[in-house]
Amino acid sequence: MASVLLVEDDPSIRTHLTDFLSGQGHVVRSTSHGFEALREVTQRSPDIVILDLGLPDLDGIDVLRMIRGISQVPVLVATARDEEAEVIRLLNTGADDYVVKPFSGGELLARLGAVLRRTTSRAAPGTAYAKATSDTVRVGGLLIDPGARTAHLDGVQVPLTRREFDLLLYLARHSGRVVSRQRILTDVWRQAYVEDQTLDVHVSALRRKLGERAARPRYLHTVRGVGIKLVSPA
After folding, report:
1. CA-based nearest residue to 143, from 197, 210, 89, 193
2. Domains defined along the chain, listed by start
3. Is this model's pTM higher than 0.85 or not?
4. Are strands 48-52 and 75-79 parallel, antiparallel or unpaired?
5. What is the pLDDT of residues 93-128, one digit of tens each?
């Protein structure tokens, strides 16, 4: 069964869906806020996100756009509108599927299962990049294996999301050099438009997982107005 992140601001609906999905064997975490959803996606890498668009802190479309900027996690959008223009907008923004409110538990399960079947058959994001840099990369106590898509710090594996791994590998391949934010977004995300906040979220997550803080960096250094560099600690 899947690990599900449920993003829904209505407490009764959130409780009902959490109980229902848990009863079907899924592991469910829930939140009512967009920013918390972004943290959950970054830190816990759920198998799928069920995203309601009516959130108190962020517009659901913006949350979808930011999720898609930091992760390839499947997103099933719950919407009250089924107009063609709305559906097209959701799919173009990055939704894998949608379900129109009100929906039954059976329909939700069917769509959730269909999305998971489709997305698990996809090639993992960053595969082509990993093949192009197949040699193990070492920077200080960091050992990065592109083929296995693993990173170890001082012999301990660092749990990374797919995009975090891609970012770390990219910076490691350019270790000691400052790489501009725009170049990172272009080369790692490979999308025409990605919000700057997306990179900030990933850098912050990497710092935390590498056991450092922005105020006292060891590996990840931000050069204000220029970019980011990964270095071996002195």
Report:
1. 210
2. 3-120 (3.40.50.2300), 127-230 (1.10.10.10)
3. no
4. parallel
5. 889 899 998 899 999 999 998 888 876 654 344 433
